[in-house]
Amino acid sequence: MALWSGRFEEGVSEFTQRFGASLPVDKQLYAQDIAGSRAHAAMLAHQGVISQEDADKIDAGLERIKGEIEAGSFPFDINNEDIHMSIESVLTSEIGDAGARLHTGRSRNDQVCTDTRLFAKKRARDLMAANVELRHALVSQAEKHFDVILPGYTHMQHAQPVLFSHHMLAYVWMLDRDFDRLRAAYDAADANPLGSAALAGTTYPLDRFMTAEALGFSRVIPNSLDAVSDRDFLLDLLYACSVSCMHLSRLCEEIILWSTAEFGFVTLSDSFSTGSSIMPQKKNPDFAELIRGKSGRVIGDLVALLVTMKSLPLAYNKDLQEDKEGAIDAAKTLEDCYRCATGMIDTMEIHPDAMLEQAKKGYLAATDVADYLAKKGLPFRRAHEIVGHLVLLCDKRGCGLEDLSLEDFKAESDLFEEDITKCLDLASIVAARTTFGGTGNSAVKEQLDQAKEALAAD
Ligand code: ARG
């Protein structure tokens, strides 16, 4: 018999029982549910609502149940619908009336969001730690191959040469912002709904600040209706997970491209590659692809909850039971993706020669040649056109800008002198971009220090 069955004459069918149950999902919140109940019972006793003796029995009983769940001997029964009623009914069958007093001044409506908030806080912290690991892997690749040059692209066409370290650090900054978003999701969850009861508060003299402190919440939600029906904190977590998955997907897309025969910029270690069941020669970047693919799932989890929430009237509605599965899935998926990406980046082999070889193609010096003229007083638009002609000439001859003679340059403008060769050297082109945040070696060194400092603080 369900704990709420008093006013019912008939039970639900086996099918609807199963359909309405959330136990298969929310059993993962057992530790949070037990922590919430222990804090509630201690507070009830402190406020004189239940006796200290009952509170002690409840506490010991819950401790025992926690051990049973962890040992795998707890009698989970789908007829108990969710983790809250599962624990409470087993507790009551074990300790009698004291157990039946636990739910005084409480509803599953404030209980479930208390558990979910505690869970969200824990998962946000786990993800922050995994995010830091991945940033370490990227930073160490940037340090190891600091001066390596590769082509920078726009529109997937060769644009200007950049440092490999600069490229890696771009992802470090994305992940740095993801860390901040995860921290914001942690903060959003960090408020106590317990004591809101079903929707309106309760007539018992509950001390919501006491349970907040016991559970480690930094504040108490000031409106009981909002407290039981708000799931913004899960949306915040899902959004943080989605954005970070999107970043990982971009990183993996580049790794997939870089490991093709056409690029040959990197080789993934065997432990992060798979073979083909038919083509003996294949070495596929499956894990990078899988991380790229999993972003779709996580973004789907975010959209699913947003759509579930829209149009929900106050206060609790059963629709809210759909909140947990996607959030649990998104956090687990991102955690696994972080872990996989960390191993993949850590063990990825870089091929500086192949990168440099490609950087020599596609007239990457063109902007600097135009800047050379502009710095000698020619309006930049004019300089741009002149260099366009030089590129056209190279195209026709099938050579690079560095293969042109000084006469070829002078034929387009007599502002060109011997020192134009400096503008054609890739290392000099890169090094000259000394503006803050640019790809110049000195600027990237500064950036690297800044990224490491941010990492050490997180
Ligand atoms: N299993 C429910 C959930 O996950 C718990 C709250 C149910 N409350 C209710 N009045 N039906 O949302």
TrEMBL record:
A biological process term (GO) from this entry: L-arginine biosynthetic process via ornithine
Pathway membership: Amino-acid biosynthesis; L-arginine biosynthesis; L-arginine from L-ornithine and carbamoyl phosphate: step 3/3
Transmembrane segments: none
EC identifiers of the protein: 4.3.2.1
Keywords for the protein's UniProt record, in alphabetical order: Amino-acid biosynthesis, Arginine biosynthesis, Cytoplasm, Lyase
Domain Fumarate lyase N-terminal: 6-300
Domain Argininosuccinate lyase C-terminal residues, every copy: 363-431
Pfam families the UniProt entry points to: ASL_C2, Lyase_1
Primary localization: cytoplasm
Catalytic activity as recorded in UniProt: 2-(N(omega)-L-arginino)succinate = fumarate + L-arginine
Gene Ontology, cellular component aspect: cytosol
Location in or out of the cell: Cytoplasm
PROSITE patterns recorded: FUMARATE_LYASES
Family assignment from sequence similarity: Belongs to the lyase 1 family. Argininosuccinate lyase subfamily.
Name assigned to this protein: Argininosuccinate lyase
Lineage of source species: Bacteria, Bacillati, Actinomycetota, Coriobacteriia, Eggerthellales
Gene, per the UniProt record: argH
